[in-house]
Amino acid sequence: LDGKIATADRSHFYLGTEEDRSRMRTLRRDTQAIIMGASTIRTFKRPCLAKDSETHPANVILSHNLSGLDP
Length: 71
Fold this sequence. Notes:
Elements (H helix, E strand, L loop, with lengths): L17 H13 L2 E5 H7 L13 E5 L9
Parallel strand pairs: 1-2
């Protein structure tokens, strides 16, 4: 879910509890694709991967402008 939740300086912070983050890791491991906005990938500059998994979900980028992104 990309709800444009960020600090003013776009620094990293955790949402939810450790149990929430554990559930998210499970969902990422078991899914085929993760959808995110182009601003998210521009800011963090790395794909969203599944921890402790041999396979990773496809990262689907949604945006009306893909400038600044290199496939």
